[in-house]
Each structure stands twice: as structure tokens, then as C-alpha cells.
Design goal:
Blueprint (H helix, E strand, L loop, with lengths): L5 H16 L5 H20 L3 H20 L3 H37 L18 H16 L9 H9 L12 H9 L6 H34 L6 H32 L17 H7 L2 H12 L9 H19 L3 H19 L19 H22 L3 H11 L13 H20 L16 H18 L12
Helix pairs in contact: 1-2, 2-6, 3-4, 3-5, 3-6, 4-5, 6-7, 8-9, 8-16, 8-17, 9-14, 9-15, 11-12, 12-13, 13-14, 14-15
Length: 482
């Protein structure tokens, strides 16, 4: 079930009304409804993989209790590694088996040996990377004695499978979400209205910006050999806004939906394209994943304690692993390595913790220096996105080679011309709104009481009209494939 589908438009109000009807009955019943509705939401995609989600949930619930009850460290370690091995095993089989099998066959072909590897003919279970990381963070936190194991299986299952975040995050922590699930929730009108506004903005990002950019990005990337350098450059920019509008739009809808149910999810995006360096970009992009790798991989590897060499080594490890997390293709690994390379100068010069404050805080416009810093950072991000979008390394290199040709300075000739111009204007308007609302949790949260009600509602109506005008492309969210 997609957030931008008619099914969800029916599903959400029904669950919302039942959920708040049960608030005065019993918290347990409310959580049972949350669990059943989440399983229904997931089953609408493919009911067969619902059993994989349930198995993963009960595995981590069971091993969590076993770790807590273990009489010695050796026993505790056994249950911990059992959970980690099974979780990563399932993820490896479904997501990475074919990649490793085909890469092995290709490698040994260089020494004259020919192997026809057996590959799996199975689709990737949607959301497996996300709910696996939910479970892993939970068992790691128990193993490190940061939290106690959850005894209520329903509450734990809701933590793993709460439908707003189930298939594309944010990646939640038990320390943040479980206490909210376990306490009684009361309906908060202000929070619910704020949630609806964030859903509205998320739908605008997805339907108006991402889906329209996707149409032309796909056209250019799929026919890159026949495109001019200027077309290819514009195609890369279109993809940059596609993936941002798509994924941050999903996060906005997820966070806003959760707020309708009295739940606060972790923030996942903080206007990353206004970053002044790549280090800041990664503090603002897919925040829940970046912080997950920091807490559960970077710090255990030694973090920044061992000098420049250790910082550089650990940075490359987490970026390459992050790239591989996104997909079983060498393009993702190169994308991760490129971002590590881009962040390297700030690590060496120890400036990676600069720019912690808001961009141009309190000012309408950035300084000339900040403006060029943002342009350079955005350009680096767009360059790396080419590898993320390309079908393979050869395609990416060919695409980049095409950009850096004499035709780079020609006028783009993407057809049909008028729709392209409309999308460029929409991107400019979208960027201006995001800039004006950059100090808020999401852009149109700036439309508060300081704005005249007539202007505020005019903007809401304009957003709604744009959503309905461009609806109907039936584009899946891009991060479902991860």
C-alpha cells in the first residue's frame, strides 16, 4: 500500500477513528490495533513476506529476553550473535546473494574459469533493510546493557512494524519509540493538525516534485548515449531533486501520520541541499541511518579517538557499508566511497564539526561565501548521485564523460520543452519555500500565526491543487527498493 494511493486514503481515516475510539477502552487494545493495521498495511504489498517480518520480530523479541536472563556473559553472547547472524543472514540471502554469486563468477572468469552461478528468482521483501536495522539496534542495546528487554510481545512488535515507518523508515531506536508505545496516549488536536500539514508537504514533495523530476531523469538516464552534455547535467539535477523529494517526502508523510496517532518519530531530513560541506550534508540527509551507522559501527570501530588514520579508515568503512546497504551493485559502493572521499579534507583539517548552526540563521539571504559553499556541496552531491542512479559503473562513467564534453555549454534540448520548463519553475518555487522554512522541522511549518490567515490558506490551497493536478503517475517510492 502506497502513501500516495487511494487505498491509503481509505485505510488511514478508518484506522485513525478506531484507534482513538479505543483510547478510553484499553491501551493494550490500542496497541493490538496498531499491530494488526501495520501487518495489514504490509500484507497489501505481498502477504507472503509478512511471515518473514513476523519471524524477524519474534526472533529479536525472544533473543532479547534470553540475553537479559542469561546467567553469564558467554550465554548472553551466544543469543546475541544468533540474532545478528539470522537477521543479517536473511538480509544477505534476499538482498545480496545474487550480487556475490555473480561477482564471484565474473572474478574467476578473468583466470579462464567459467561458472554459471545459481541465482535466486525472488523479489526483495520491501522494507527488509529498515526493519532488520530496527531489530539489530534493539538487540545491540540489550547486549550493551543500554536498555532492558521488552516483555510485552505486542508492544515490541509495534515498535518493529509500526506502519508509517515500516517500509522506508525513519529507522527508529527502542529507547525513543518503545516508551511512547507503552504509555497511554491522548488525542492532541494541535499535534494532529501539525501532522496533517507535514503529510501535505510530503505529498507535494513526492507527487509534484519527485514524480515529475523522475519522468525526465529516467528519460535522460535511459537514453544517455544520445544526450548532450547540458541535457546530462540537467538530468543529474533532476535525479537529485527526485530522490530528495521522494525520500524526504516519504519521511514527512510517515512522521506526520505518526503524529496523528500521538507518536513522535525521529527526524530524517533537515534541508540537506542547503549544506555548506559534505559533513554537514550527511548530518542532514537520512539522519536516522547516518546516526545508526555512527552509533553501531563508527564508534565501536574506534570513532575518532585514534588520530587521523583511524578517522579516515572508519569514515571509509561506514560510507562504503552505507552504500552497500542501499543496494547490491558496485555503483552504490562507489557512491559511498565518493562521499567518503569528499568528506576527507574536512576530516584531515578537523573542520568536519563546523557548520553545526542553522544556515544563514535569522537572515533572509546567505552571504556570498555561504552561497558558494552550498553550490559546491550541492554539485558534489549531484555528481555522486550519478553513480547512485546509473545501471552500472560503465554507465556512470559514460554518463560523466558525456557531461564533460563541448556540448555541456549548449542549450538543453529535452522534449517536450514546455513541461520541462514547468518542472524547472516548480523546483525553483520549491527551493524558495524550503529556504524560507529551513529553521523549521519541515518547510511549511513556517506558515504559523505570524502569517495572515488569508495568505496561509492560499498557500495550503495552492499546494493541494498542485497535488491533485499532478496526481496519477502512480510512482512507487524510490526507497522501497532498498
Amino acid at each position: 500500500m502506497l502513501f500516495n494511493s487511494i487505498g491509503f486514503v481509505i485505510f488511514l481515516p478508518v484506522v485513525f477513528l478506531l484507534y482513538w475510539f479505543l483510547k478510553n477502552k484499553n491501551l493494550k487494545l490500542q496497541n493490538i490495533l496498531s499491530l494488526l493495521s501495520s501487518y495489514f498495511f504490509y500484507a497489501c504489498w505481498d502477504w507472503r513476506f509478512l511471515f518473514l517480518l513476523m519471524f524477524s520480530t519474534f526472533l529479536d523479541y525472544f533473543t532479547g529476553l534470553k540475553m537479559q536472563d542469561a546467567k553469564n556473559q558467554k550465554r548472553k553472547r551466544f543469543w546475541f550473535w544468533l540474532s545478528v547472524a539470522v537477521n543479517l543472514g536473511f538480509l544477505g540471502i534476499f538482498k545480496y546473494y545474487n550480487f556475490f554469486a555473480e561477482s564471484f563468477a565474473e572474478t574467476i572468469s578473468y583466470v579462464g574459469l567459467q561458472v554459471n552461478p545459481w541465482t535466486l528468482k525472488v523479489i526483495l521483501p520491501v522494507g527488509i533493510s529498515f526493519y532488520t536495522f530496527h531489530g539489530l539496534s534493539y538487540v545491540i542495546d540489550i547486549y550493551k546493557d543500554r536498555i532492558k528487554a521488552e516483555s510485552n510481545v505486542v508492544d515490541y512488535a509495534v515498535f518493529v512494524s509500526f506502519f508509517p515507518l515500516l517500509v522506508a523508515g525513519p529507522i527508529e531506536r527502542a529507547t525513543h519509540l518503545l516508551p511512547q508505545i507503552k504509555k497511554r496516549r491522548t488525542f492532541d488536536y494541535t499535534k494532529a493538525v501539525d501532522g496533517l500539514k507535514q503529510i501535505l508537504w510530503g505529498l507535494f514533495k513526492k507527487i509534484v516534485i519527485a514524480d515529475n523530476c523522475a519522468e525526465f531523469a529516467n528519460q535522460i538516464f535511459n537514453n544517455s548515449d544520445d544526450q548532450s552534455g547540458s541535457n546530462l547535467a540537467l538530468g543529474a539535477v533532476f535525479f537529485a531533486f527526485q530522490i530528495y523529494g521522494d525520500f524526504s517526502g516519504y519521511s514527512d508523510i510517515a512522521i506526520g501520520t505518526a503524529r496523528l496517532f500521538g507518536i513522535d518519530l525521529l527526524r530524517n531530513f533537515a534541508f540537506p541541499y542547503f549544506s555548506r560541506d559534505i559533513a554537514e550534508f550527511w548530518r542532514r540527509w537520512h539522519i536516522s541511518l547516518s546516526s545508526w551507522f555512527k552509533d553501531y559501527l563508527y564508534i565501536p570501530l574506534g570513532g575518532s579517538k585514534g588520530g587521523n588514520w583511524m578517522r579516515i579508515r572508519n569514515t571509509f568503512i561506514i560510507f562504503i557499508v552505507s552504500g552497500f546497504w542501499h543496494g547490491a551493485n558496485w555503483t552504490f559502493i562507489v557512491w559511498g566511497a565518493l562521499n567518503a572521499l569528499f568528506i576527507l579534507p574536512s576530516i584531515i583539517m578537523k573542520t568536519n564539526r563546523n557548520n553545526l548552526e542553522s544556515v544563514a540563521q535569522g537572515n533572509l539571504l546567505p552571504t556570498i561565501k555561504v552561497f558558494f559553499q552550498m553550490i559546491i556541496t550541492f554539485t558534489l552531491a549531484v555528481f555522486a548521485w550519478i553513480f547512485f542512479r546509473a545501471e552500472n559503473i560503465t554507465h556512470a562513467l559514460s554518463y560523466i564523460s558525456g557531461i564533460f564534453s563541448k556540448s555541456l555549454f549548449s542549450i538543453p534540448t529535452i522534449t517536450p520543452h514546455f513541461p520541462v520548463l514547468i518542472i524547472i519553475i516548480l523546483i525553483i518555487i520549491f527551493t524558495i519555500i524550503e529556504w524560507l522554512g529551513r529553521e523549521q522541522q519541515y518547510a511549511i511549518a513556517m506558515l504559523g500565526t505570524k502569517w495572515k490567515s488569508s495568505l496561509r490558506y492560499a498557500m495550503y490551497y495552492a499546494i493541494i491543487i498542485a497535488i491533485f493536478w499532478f496526481a496519477g503517475k502512480d510512482q512507487q517510492f524510490i526507497y522501497f527498493q532498498f
